[in-house]
Design goal:
Blueprint lengths: L9 H20 L5 E6 L8 H11 L3 E4 L1 H4 L4 H7 L9 E3 L9 E8 L12
Antiparallel strand pairs: 1-4, 2-4, 3-4
Amino acid sequence: RDSGDDGAPAAQQGLVRKQQELLESGWQALRPGGCLVYSTCTFNAWENEAQFKEFLELKGSEAQCLHVAELLELSPGARAALGCEEKSLGPLQLWPHAFDTEGFFVACLRKVPAGPADSSEDS
């Protein structure tokens, strides 16, 4: 996969590729039904949204995007403060100017268990 570093400065492309490798390694180790959390402490879209969207597209129906705000059971007020939108993919981005914290990006994916047709080879 080379497209994950699109838009990233040359100095950052190695880091973007390393993150792709870490995501794939974590995904391969994840059992069906398990959840993978992808989190960074950067504001760079190519390390956050672009990385997450590309991985989600690559996995297709194997991956289900989970809404982090729902998982954390955030109140409507907290969701509004975080800028959570119903139409969003589900990740959260925390900005230092809006919260007394460092910047963070958090996304969560569930590995969809294979259907009965896929498991017929085991019979």
